[in-house]
Description:
CATH architecture of the largest domain in chain A: Orthogonal Bundle
Strand content of chain A: under 5%
Oligomer: heterodimer
Structural class of chain A: mainly alpha
Number of domains of chain B: 2
Largest sheet of chain A: none
Number of strands of chain B: 0
Distance between the termini of chain B: 114 Å
Strand content of chain B: under 5%
CATH superfamily of the largest domain in chain A: RNA polymerase sigma factor, region 2, helix turn helix motif
Amino acid sequence: MIAPKAEREILAGVRSPLAADRTRAFERLVASVHRPLFAVCESITQHRADAEDALQEAYVAAHRGLAGFRGDSRLGTWMYRIAIRAALRQRARRRRRADHALASEPIDPRTLAGPENVDAERVRRALGRLSAEHRTVLALFCVEDHSHEEIAEVLGVPVGTAWSRLHHARKRLVAEFEQQRDC
Amino acid sequence: MTMTECDRAQAGMDIQHPFLRDGLPNHIRAHVAECDACRLHVDVAAACMADLRSRAAGAADAPQARRMLDAALTAKRRTRAAILALLCFDLLGAAACLVFIGWSWALALFAVTVPPQAAALWYVSVHHRRLIERAAQGGELFAVLRADLGARIARVQWCAPVLIVGGVAMALLAASELPYQAASRNALAAGQILFDAGFIGLGVYLLTRLPAMRRESDDLKTSGDA
Lengths: 183, 226
């Protein structure tokens, strides 16, 4: 999430009458949320190119809507909501095209630092078999260490729901992992 | 309802965060060390976190994302405006062709249905005397019409280059969108390029037919004068 001070500066920038200030503020916003948003989008779409498209769509929407941002929620939360919606739309489009190539992309073992006794590729496959809802909550929890309250705010659900969704997502992930092992 | 040690450990993983063995409190760690099921939970969760974080590391860097966004925003605005302008331009050209062609056929219809005397009076007033005289004589009506059509299109010969230039420009603009769009939008852009190809084709056809049309028109005038 964006630090409160940085958030205030970004909001002041986007409301500035000078175009250069607005551009700088938006650049700063993109720089601070880009990587975690990409991870969340990729975990929802399970497709790198789709995640990039979703993120681009989210940035365009944010760019248009930022001037009217009222500050009812945190800026980071708002960006997450837009990106998640864009990623879900992108995922639905791909499903409609029946080109359901959501199979996991080849994994580079060097990028992973998980436990050695767990097959990372199998974990990724198990993750791919979860529902988008479960993947979203896991991604929010893992990528930026969001608290349950923040997750609930991003998803627009009560904290208890975020909590139970996370719990079930983790259980489902282990169940899918074990199922893969049995196969 | 009493919670088992495993339930407590797994609830602890939900609360205490992040799936990292080192981040768990001591009593959960002690249980996890002894329990295979809970160890599997922790290990899978840790691998999941590593996987998700590796995706973040795989993202294009922010400046690159910003450039893509710039391209998307600028291209969207510029493309929308340019395509609209060019479409109006091309439609104007095509409409001019259609109006002239349609006018010719309306004349033909008028010539064959209205008594020659009345038609002649009317056509004299609108400078189409030669056409109606020839049409009233019967026989070569369609040759006359074709020549008249050629003469009319020759008068709007600017339509052909407009159609070609406009079509090429619109196709280029649509093509410039391709690298930035999702597959569905690429299909849309490809459809637009095909549509533009139609404009270009019509323009090229008119351009190649113009000399023949002028020749036929001149022949008709000469024979009429003779």
